[in-house]
Design brief:
The chain has helices at about 10-20, 85-100, 120-130, 185-195; strands spanning about 45-50, 55-60, 65, 75-80, 105-110, 135, 145, 155, 160-165, 170-175. It contains four helices and ten strands, in the order H-E-E-E-E-H-E-H-E-E-E-E-E-H. It has an eight-stranded mixed beta sheet with strand order 1-10-9-4-5-6-2-3, with helices on one face. It has a two-stranded parallel sheet with strand order 7-8.
Length: about 200
């Protein structure tokens, strides 16, 4: 049986060529998150789900927290970089989104993969007027790696930005590549599925 979960467009083509009746395993309508798609991408649900890795997250302000300390909240694990134009558009949306949802139900973890250093990242954020979004750092690729590198980092980067969704039980549900308007009706409905459940 073919598993079609990693690259949505390529996986759909492979499944169609293989004669599969559906690109993803069937499950009850109430168990599936709402549709989330942009002009270029769609949310890819990862099945079977697995627990998020036990890793430390290093913040721009120097503090560190374990990822599993966020269990009980839905988590948007968003990877971005200063050299990424769509990231420039999405980061202010993430900051506004942080104010839209109760901090007890949704945590936004915006992780820079830049190697340029803290001053460069701070200047970039100042230029975007992003002042309240909690920023995390992964300059060495310990948390995320480009999909073809295979260094053992737990989160593959299939594009930039890329956002992984972790549910309140701590399971990695899936990901979406490219910028997302999380404040759209579709984005809010998608997130409420995870925060209200």
């Amino acid at each position: 049986m073919m598993t079609c979960i990693q690259r949505p467009n390529f996986a759909l083509l492979l499944c169609a060529l293989a004669g599969a009746s559906a690109p993803f395993p069937a499950h009850a309508q109430s168990d599936a998150p709402p549709t989330l798609q942009t002009g270029d991408s769609q949310f890819v649900e990862l099945l079977p789900r697995s627990l998020a890795p036990q890793i430390m997250l290093d913040r721009l302000d120097g503090k560190s927290i374990p990822l599993n300390a966020l269990r009980g909240k839905a988590v948007l694990l968003s990877f971005w970089a200063t050299w990424c134009p769509p990231c420039r558009r999405e980061l202010p949306i993430l900051e506004r989104l942080q104010k839209t949802f109760d901090a007890a139900t949704l945590e936004i973890v915006a992780i820079s993969i830049d190697k340029a250093g803290k001053p460069t990242i701070e200047r970039f954020l100042d230029g975007l007027n992003v002042k309240h979004l909690r920023i995390y750092l992964d300059p060495t690729g310990r948390i995320a790696e480009h999909a073809n590198q295979e260094t053992g980092a737990p989160f593959p980067l299939y594009g930039m930005p890329i956002t992984y969704v972790i549910d309140r039980k701590g399971s990695v549900v899936g990901y979406i590549t490219g910028e997302v308007n999380w404040l759209s009706a579709e984005g809010i409905a998608f997130l409420k599925y995870f925060t209200d459940g």
